[in-house]
C-alpha cells in the first residue's frame, strides 16, 4: 500500500536501536543504514516496497512529532502484535494502548499502540481471527 514512509527522529542512534528491535520482532529486514546521513530503512519481503525509513529532518530543523499522525504495521498474528509492542516498550517506547481487540474497527482487529522515544506514534495490527495457540 505504501511506497515509503519516513519518520523523523531526534537521536538517530537511539531511534535505530528502538526501530531495529520493533522491525526484528515483525520479521522485517534492514535494507540500509547510513549513519553519516543519518538514515536507515527497512523493506518488505523480497526486497520490495514499501520501505520504512527513519532519518533526521531533511531541512536540518529539530524533530517535532505531529499530533494525529501514525504509522501502522501489519502483523501476521496476534502473537506478533504482542511481541512488537513488548519490543517497543523494552527499547524506550511508551504505551499508547496495550495489545487487544478493537472491535470498533472490525471484529478481528487486534492492535497495539506505542510511541517511540522521539514521540512518533505507531500501531501494529493483525486483522485475522485468532489462530489456535496464539
UniProtKB/TrEMBL annotation:
Residues annotated as transmembrane: none
Gene3D superfamilies according to UniProt: 2,3-Dihydroxybiphenyl 1,2-Dioxygenase, domain 1 (3.10.180.10)
Domain VOC: 1-127
A Pfam family matched in the record: Glyoxalase
PANTHER family: BLL2941 PROTEIN, GLYOXALASE FAMILY PROTEIN (AFU_ORTHOLOGUE AFUA_5G14830)
Protein's recorded name: VOC family protein
Species in which this protein is naturally found: Variovorax humicola
Amino acid at each position: 500500500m505504501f511506497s515509503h514512509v519516513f519518520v523523523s527522529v531526534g537521536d538517530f542512534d537511539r531511534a535505530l536501536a528502538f526501530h531495529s528491535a520493533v522491525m526484528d520482532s515483525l520479521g522485517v529486514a534492514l535494507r540500509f543504514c547510513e549513519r553519516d546521513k543519518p538514515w536507515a530503512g527497512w523493506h518488505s519481503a523480497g526486497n520490495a516496497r514499501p520501505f520504512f525509513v527513519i532519518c533526521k529532518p531533511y531541512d536540518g530543523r529539530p524533530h517535532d512529532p505531529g499530533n494525529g499522525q501514525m504509522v501502522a504495521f501489519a502483523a501476521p498474528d496476534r502473537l506478533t502484535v504482542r511481541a512488537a509492542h513488548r519490543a517497543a516498550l523494552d527499547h524506550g517506547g511508551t504505551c499508547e494502548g496495550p495489545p487487544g481487540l478493537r472491535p470498533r474497527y472490525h471484529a478481528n482487529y487486534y492492535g497495539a499502540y506505542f510511541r517511540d522515544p522521539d514521540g512518533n506514534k505507531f500501531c501494529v495490527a493483525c486483522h485475522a481471527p485468532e489462530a489456535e495457540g496464539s
